[in-house]
Amino acid sequence: MALSLSKDFIQPANAKDIHVDGVGGVTIADIGVDKLDALRDFYNTTMRPNYILGYQPLFSWMFKNNGGKVAVLLHDKKVIAHQGHVPIIFANGEKEYRGFISASTFVDANYRRKGLMTILRGNVQSRYEMACSIGGSAMGVALYSSMGYKLYGDFTRRVAVVDVNRCQNIAKNYNSLVRTVEISKKSNDSIKPAEDFSRISDQVDELVRSVFPAKTFFGVKRSAEFFDWRYSSHPVYDYQSYGLFGFGKLKALIVFRREEIPDGDAAVIRITELIGAKGFLNELIAGTVLNQEHSSGIGWIDFFCTNESICNHIKESGFVDPDSLGTVLPIFCNPVDYYKTKYPVMLWAKDETIYDSLPPFQNWYLTKGDGDADRPNKLPNQ
Fold first, then answer.
1. What is the CA radius of gyration of the chain?
2. What local confidence, expressed as pLDDT, does residue 200 receive?
3. What one-character DSSP code corresponds to residue 320?
4. Domain ranges of the chain
5. How many angstroms separate the CA atoms of 58 and 52, rounded?
6. CATH fold for the domain made of 16-154
7. Hey, what's the torsion of the CAs at 298, 300, 305, 307, to 10 degrees?
8. Comparing 16-154 with 156-340, is the CATH topology the same?
9. Which stretches of the chain drop beneath a pLDDT of 70?
10. Rounded to an integer, what distance in angstroms lies between the CA atom of residue 242 and that of residue 307?
11. What is the pLDDT of residue 1?
12. pLDDT value at position 42?
């Protein structure tokens, strides 16, 4: 039976009191926007002032399918540990699993190294069949490994350099860059916006089945429900979704957003979904992100994905391995940050026999659009 994000994931609070050595009495609970002031206090002191999850529309959207709540540990009525969990359906085309992707895992600096995150994470994991961590730091990878997560690899990044001059203030050694793509002014009548995925639900399902045959892949289930939640209703980003249609069918799909970089007098395009056969994908790319309508003022376009075939398909459109460019094009641009260079992918399964049944990592389909990997670092108008 097919699982639904909106029907199969809202969990009870599971509030309970425990004793933790070195801390005292602690309450495990799920809290939401009614406690957002307490969460903001925690974010401001543990992370940084005006941390993005303190923005109520984003908080409510991100955790919508978990009843709009995050898991926390409370001590003396204060939040001392936080585990955001974004409910996700994992699938291989044959089976579906209730899972979550980790979002914002941290502990108050005064209560670290006391096993609090192991306690909180264990409580959250007990409610699901699978969990995934994307983009964790070295410290995070070590923590998750100690809790049974397996490290599978890193996202592959593909980059298309559009305008070298626009990279001047945001890339290291930009003089070594060369343009890798050509921009077109031509329109393609077969390419149309895909703004309401529920209206083309059957076509979306058929496209996913054709590109990812059952049991040959693994990843977050792509469905109209997922796309409408993830992209059509985002409270901050203006994602643009387009499909290549032919003979009444959806042949390929792309989702992307334009990211302005005021400090660099430039912009970049972040692709978060690419699904389709090679020829259809490159036709869709040529008519959207490589079209003058969308590419004006762009320094580069990038795409992060685990699927090797799709990453290889788009080489034909001028997307290359960024390591071949002799420069560093930052993953984070607001503000520009050269520290982050990889997105490691880790997976936990309650049933450990599942690990042996998974296809090779290069056949998975996960992207930067999963979980909270593609989210703003600043509050709107900040």
1. 21
2. 97
3. B
4. 16-154, 156-340
5. 8
6. Aminopeptidase (3.40.630)
7. 110
8. yes
9. 1, 11-14, 378-382
10. 20
11. 64
12. 96
